[in-house]
Amino acid sequence: MHISIVTLWKQKKSKREIAKITGHDRKTVKRIIKSYEETGQELPVLNRKQSILNEYKEQIMELIEQNLTAVRIHEKLSEQGVSTSYSSIHRYISKIKIDDKICVRFHTPPGEEAQVDFGYLGRLPDETGRLSKAYAFNMRLCYSRLDYFEIVFDQRVETFINCHINAFSYFGGVVKVVKIDNLKAAIIQAHFYEPTYQQIYKRFADHYQFFPLTCRVASPQEKGKTESGIRYIQINFIAGRKFENNQELKLSLKEWLDNKCNTRIHGTTKKVPRIVFENEEKELLISLPINDFVFPNLITRKVGKDCHITFANNYYSVPYQYVHKIVEVTLDIKLIKINYENQQIALHERCEAKGQFITNKAHYPKYKLYEPHSLEYQNKYRDKLKAIGQYAGDLFPLLVKYYPHSWYPMAKGILSLQKQYTNDVINLACQRALSFDAISYQKIKAICYSGCYVLPIENINNIERREGVANDYYA
Predict the structure, then answer these.
(1) Domain ranges within the chain, ordered by starting residue
(2) 273: which of 120, 145, 268, 451 fits an S-S bond (Cβ 3.0–4.6 Å)?
(3) CA distance 368 to 305
(4) Read out DSSP for 17-49?
(5) What is the CATH architecture assignment of 113-284?
């Protein structure tokens, strides 16, 4: 109705003629024409009632970020005196969440950006002929959608960088920005505003003159082009194919990359990536560096649960706080420096022999140092027995002497008698055991049980001789 009336008015029809043609009342025609002349809008302006919750939108969004449900958010607002129903809150939150899921498609100029990622492909034949976990490395140029794929069997820093080098060589140049996920091979600590880069990867980026740009954590849409690239190789190259060996895998991938992947009509751009690249993007890439990137004398290792890393068939200790973490090892002629997140955490002299453990005991938690053959462990139980009484303390060195490999369960057994007997009873039982040379937990337990610790002791010389052994031990 509004469009018809406005159109006729633009055609210089009178209000009377418009009313007659459209069949509407002249007052209605007059009102619509007046609204059009005031606002310039051909359609009616809807006077929608604003929600009272708009005033609290920022607060509601903060509560949503805290994973509070609509019920809890309704309770929170009610506590502040906001008078609204739960259903209104639920509708309002649903609208916010729908808006939050909207994404913007990013368009980058030629030569500006590439995106990289790893994707799992299953088990494929490695260079040794065994079936191993395989990963696809993908670098995709964002403008032309030209792809580079490489199949690798680990995600180490060296592998990640070598894949970059091969990709830039394939393209014949370097982009200004490489967008990466928060891979450990590139990012030590993920942070949107200022991430901590892996040291070698950052040196490599500087050498090739590109800027590594990280995605926000759990935001794969920010590198959606390479995300789709990983799916593309999984579905269109790996699916339905079997490879006899690693050489066949590499040759098949190269043939597919050159003759299928990069010569297809891309689903989004409706253009052939190779043609777009050659005509519009290639000449805008940064030239490859004249000198090859030289890996610094630095390697990465994972700390084992025994608090050691392996290098050159030897084992070097690392503080226990870094167990299962990836550390960086800087090699010197005589030293091995171990770093974590650019901080030195251990230093050792290099060992020339093989199969040796170079261990700093301070790298273990203190309670782990208490092993039966360690002095710390002996001192712990010596002090506990001495706390029972003099004779229990005199008994301890004899336990160590007579039972060098099993003294500690006997010492624990004597201490366990405290659950049933007083320290005085246990101490007197140890005195009697010393007098009869009955140095064992079972004998002391039997003495306590029988009550014979109260009987007179005749073999005083034997006790004195045993006390002499104890004095020598404690001396």
Answers:
(1) 2-39, 54-100, 113-284, 298-365, 375-474
(2) 145
(3) 13
(4) HHHHHH---HHHHHHHHHHHHHH--SSPPP-PP
(5) 2-Layer Sandwich (3.30)
